[in-house]
Recover the amino acids of this structure.
């Protein structure tokens, strides 16, 4: 396959009708899929892996450049976008560390991302003016078949450095588990689990996407 | 160190000296005079539901364990081994039979008592050593409708007297439904480089900032309701013993910022039941534009969602521990919508919280300048608000845009910082009968 990605930079802003809301059961099922034992499917072939890597690199560049609406258009209508809070637990603790019902940094559907972007678009999000400069590195990309045709389980690591005024800098690192869905010659992000390593977030906010 | 706190504030003139947000000496005195003496929120009972359950938190900079014993009693004790000082609990929460220090293996029960250690015979053969003398230091513990508070001061008044008539307002959060309340699982924790009072005084009485700070975050969710608006006639500030609560009385607002019409529908559907329980006035406090602080550092947005402590970590840093509180009997789907609403608004990535952190850090950091920190801050806003209906307890004024609660917060701060005994600190007598707990 050739990697003829449609450039999202020229894509239209989101449609005005709100995307569907996931029911509680659908959200739980999405969480379960992202938390279930991973890397079980067959690895995708090298050509597809390359295409997925190119997609993730492009996505990171859109976020670096604050092309948020272009990034938004990479999100599936039934998006489940989830960054649960971690907790330090004893190894003997048998409770699952992460459950759908717990605290999160993000537990968003596509409509929630739209709300977040609308905040930025008001021009009155003071904590982003002057803007944060950020840079993402996406590494350790692995991709597997899921059993659903055209959907791939994709693992990656992100490093996200940001700096604003004076000494206001922060680095966050973590793992992502995505379900990417083939969409023409590109992909849509259908589900994303963001696993930060910090149980106490060492920053005043998360004014960024992952 | 002696400190004449009145030289740092003049509430008649309406100013607060900026040095109280910066200087180490003042901060150290706060730990002694405020955090080691006041009743501090440590947990919701639902966090330690069953015998053996524990959760950790801080009282000032003292790390503590909150644990439910086999006798079902909730106790609070220092998370520090009396042998060499190491922690005895290393997890944020869990279930256990004992807390065992990693250093030499001293083991403590759920009641904090020393139960045993390796080579125990050597200790037993040591003249003068008695196991009973070396348990984990206990705090006094009392609860109010699910909220667990603790203090290390034996001379402190009872929790009931400390909260006073603030309890009458707290019922508008804690007693709206049969069955009481619970925290949803887990705590969100994050650090912010600001003085703890910057955050605590904001929640005690600063709705004013919402009209500017939160414009960006509020617009996408509140425009449908006419934008961020304050009803100066139908809103109040009330304070009791340094605790402050500013609120509209129209049952919309905070709830609407969560951007979920299902939640508003649900709250409206409960209005009659809540009114029957608490009366019309308090019914209208649930989910209105409002915020509150229980002195010194336990703050919440009334009616639902974020409850948090602003834990002091030095004069220029706090750790926020935040939970989501909901009525226990609420339908599961609605609980989930509240949880998601809280995450989307008031959490580190929330569309409202992100702008607060930015302000609070800069309000603190500017004090690095010696000229800057000798300046005063104006806390004098005091518009004439008109009479308040009879029968509302506490120091209550009409109009929620005012500095009156924040001045009351700093009055209590000064009384404690002066080193007065509890007997010398005025406590407002409780006027209102307290409803029996819902459970």
């Amino acid at each position: 396959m050739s990697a003829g990605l449609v450039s999202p930079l020229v894509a239209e802003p989101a449609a005005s009708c709100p995307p569907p809301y996931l029911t509680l059961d659908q959200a739980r099922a999405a969480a379960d899929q992202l938390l279930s034992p991973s890397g079980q499917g067959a690895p995708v072939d090298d050509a597809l892996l390359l295409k997925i890597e190119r997609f993730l690199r492009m996505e990171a560049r859109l976020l670096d450049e604050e092309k948020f609406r272009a990034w938004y258009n990479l999100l599936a209508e039934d998006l489940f976008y989830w960054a649960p809070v971690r907790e330090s637990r004893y190894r003997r603790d048998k409770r699952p560390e992460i459950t759908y019902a717990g605290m999160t940094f993000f537990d968003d559907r596509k409509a929630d991302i739209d709300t977040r972007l609308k905040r930025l678009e008001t021009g009155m999000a003071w904590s982003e003016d002057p803007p944060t400069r950020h840079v993402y590195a996406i590494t350790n990309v692995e991709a597997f078949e899921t059993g659903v045709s055209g959907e791939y389980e994709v693992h990656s690591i992100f490093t996200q450095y940001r700096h604003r005024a004076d000494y206001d800098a922060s680095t966050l690192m973590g793992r992502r588990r995505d379900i990417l869905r083939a969409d023409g010659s590109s992909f849509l992000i259908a589900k994303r689990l963001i696993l930060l390593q910090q149980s106490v977030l060492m920053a005043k906010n998360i004014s960024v996407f992952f | 160190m002696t400190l004449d706190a009145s030289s740092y504030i003049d509430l008649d003139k309406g100013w607060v000296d900026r040095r109280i947000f910066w200087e180490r000496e003042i901060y150290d005195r706060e730990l002694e005079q405020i955090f080691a003496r006041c009743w501090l929120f440590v947990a919701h009972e639902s966090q330690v539901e069953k015998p053996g359950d524990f959760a950790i938190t801080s009282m000032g900079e003292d790390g503590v364990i909150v644990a439910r014993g086999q006798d079902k009693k909730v106790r609070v004790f220092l998370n520090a081994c009396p042998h060499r000082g190491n922690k005895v609990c290393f997890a944020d929460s869990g279930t256990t039979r004992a807390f065992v220090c990693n250093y030499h293996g001293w083991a403590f029960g759920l009641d904090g008592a020393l139960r045993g250690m390796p080579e125990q015979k050597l200790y037993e053969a040591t003249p003068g050593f008695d196991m009973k003398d070396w348990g984990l230091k206990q705090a006094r513990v009392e609860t109010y409708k699910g909220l667990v508070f603790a203090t290390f001061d034996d001379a402190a008044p009872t929790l009931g007297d400390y909260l006073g008539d603030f309890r009458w307002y707290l019922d508008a959060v804690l007693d709206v439904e049969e069955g009481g309340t619970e925290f949803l699982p887990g705590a969100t924790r994050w650090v912010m480089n600001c003085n703890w009072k910057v955050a605590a005084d904001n929640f005690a009485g600063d709705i004013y900032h919402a009209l500017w700070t939160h414009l960006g975050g509020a617009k996408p969710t509140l425009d449908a309701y006419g934008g961020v608006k304050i009803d100066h006639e139908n809103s109040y500030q009330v304070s009791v013993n340094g605790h402050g609560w500013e609120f509209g009385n129209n049952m919309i607002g905070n709830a609407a910022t969560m951007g979920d019409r299902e939640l508003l529908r649900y709250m409206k559907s409960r209005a009659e039941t809540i009114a029957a329980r608490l009366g019309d006035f308090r019914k209208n406090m649930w989910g209105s534009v409002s915020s509150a602080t229980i002195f010194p550092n336990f703050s919440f947005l009334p009616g639902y969602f974020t409850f948090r402590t602003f834990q002091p970590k030095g004069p220029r840093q706090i750790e926020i521990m935040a939970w989501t509180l909901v009525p226990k009997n609420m339908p599961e789907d609605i609980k989930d919508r509240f949880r998601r609403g809280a995450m989307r608004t008031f959490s580190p990535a929330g569309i409202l919280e992100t702008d607060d952190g930015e302000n609070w850090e800069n309000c603190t950091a500017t004090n690095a300048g010696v000229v800057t920190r000798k300046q005063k801050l104006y806390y004098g806003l005091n518009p004439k608000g008109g009479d308040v209906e009879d029968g509302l307890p506490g120091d209550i004024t009409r109009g929620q845009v005012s500095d009156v609660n924040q001045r009351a917060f700093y009055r209590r701060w000064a009384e404690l910082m002066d080193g007065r005994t509890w007997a010398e600190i005025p406590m407002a007598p409780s006027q209102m009968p307290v409803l029996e707990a819902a459970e």
